[in-house]
Input
Amino acid sequence: MDHSKMDHSVMIRRKKPQTRTRMAVSPVKAKTPLTPRTVSVVTPDIKHLPWTMQNGVKIFNLTAEIIKREILPASGMGPAKILTLWGYNGSVPGPIIEVNEGDRVRVVFHNNLPEDTTVHWHGFEIPIPMDGMPFISQPPVKPGETFTYEFTLHQNGTYFYHSHGAMQEMMGAIGMFVIHPKKPHHPPVDKEFGIILQEFAALQNNPVPNSMGMEFNWLTMNGKSAPATTPLIVRLGDRVKIRLVNLGMDHHPIHLHGHQFYVTGTEGGRIPQSAWFPGNTVIVGVAQARDIEFDAKYPGDWMLHCHMPHHMMNNMVSMVGPMAHPGHGMHTGGGLEEGMGIVTQGSATSEDMGPTMGRGMGNTVDRDQATPHGIGHTTGDNSEAASVLGKDPNSKKGPGYPQDQLMMMPMDAAVAKPENNYLAPQWSSMMQGMMNLVRVLPPKEYDRLMSDIKAGRIDPAQMRGGTDHSKMPGMDHSKMPGMDQNQMPEMDHSKMDHGK
Output
């Protein structure tokens, strides 16, 4: 095909007006503006890609390169986990690109990787020469070379860009791309967040992930494993949108505690309001995006996490209880390598494997109990973790013991940051893997925390393990009217101040 003779102008598709039946949605009574507005997407731990304007075109510079990314800091549980990944502009995931429907965009792409690559614009309706498929829509971009992508955007929604090399994707080469609509959607939102879900297969002493593996031991949100993930901060009464993108080997059922949300968008764009559906868990499949929206009605620090059990662990089950220490309770089972597809010795549940408890890393429950030894974390007695549960680490152990007890890994001080100020003591103990917090704060507490974030102030209590949550004004939930027996009162949003 002679692409030079093609008309690459983008046609704007005009749909016939249609009457939609409005469905009942969670109420937005508080300070709704006369015209809906667009707010910028907050992407914790990921920067925005800057742009310049030239002759009506937004110009971005995007560079693929090798990056060292700390996904978990050093603590009393062990050294920092730093991975050598492939990403963009010094970040994994790459920086978010945020534009508006109707924009003309030019991305000047530089390849600083040691091999050929391209950039695919996932879900975009753009001319074929810009699609980013090597050898089909364009020649591969060789190391040291530059390629320019340029197109006009007539869609809106949550999209993403990534290498179209499968192994490069598994090395981290992805970034979020948000296109805001010309006419803002209704109901308007007060806060928007973006989160990219990824997983990596990394041995203890090798910072380079095994991109050929089919199973993974480090799960991240925006390039961080909990408790290093940065909480989402919202004011009580805000309407919140969270944009979720997944590019990996596993689907992720993302669950929000304490609230019901509506699924309002996919990687195909906005869902008609009549088709929104409520829930508190949404599956974000491989190469999919999901937008969820909810009213932050109830104060507290609410979990947002993948509900796959092994995705709520750091280093997967290689550190868990009797599965933790080869030679001390491990019976003919597999090691970490089998769980990552590096070495195959048979089925993870076959007799000759032990069985190995699901991911090729385990032991039978009828053998002696293991001494605690979390790969990449701690090599001794985990009595500190046991004390969090108020348990005697030397107490008599029953069948299957320990399970979650020796996963308790408090590291509040190691992950101290302003966004974590005023959390409960030892809040980090059960935060691992693909987990985060949505902090819904009353106005005074919200303003105080946002002031801390702006000033970079860290509450000294974080270095001592945490804050007595019940002593925060307005945060002693047991004394709030209607909060007994899990009864939460309806919130009169009309009386709330939404000023930021």
